[in-house]
Amino acid sequence: MEQCSYSCFLGNNVHPWRETITISTDFILLGLWPESSHLVILIYLILLVYCMAVMSNVVLILLIWLDLHLQSPMYFLLSHLSLIDLALISTSVPKMVTNFFSGERVISQVGCGTQIFFSLTLGIAECLLLTLMSYDRYIAICNPLRYSVIISHVTCKKMVIVSWAGGAITSLVHTAYAMHFPICHPREILHFLCEVMALLELTCEDISAYVKSVVVSSFLVVLIPLSLILASYTLIFLAVLHMNSSVGRNKALATCSSHLCVVSLYFGPAILVYMRPGSSKTPRLNQSLFMFNAILTPMLNPLIYSLRNKDVIEALKSRVINRFPLRKMKRHLHCYT
Question: Is 324 strand, coil or helix?
Answer without folding.
Answer: coil
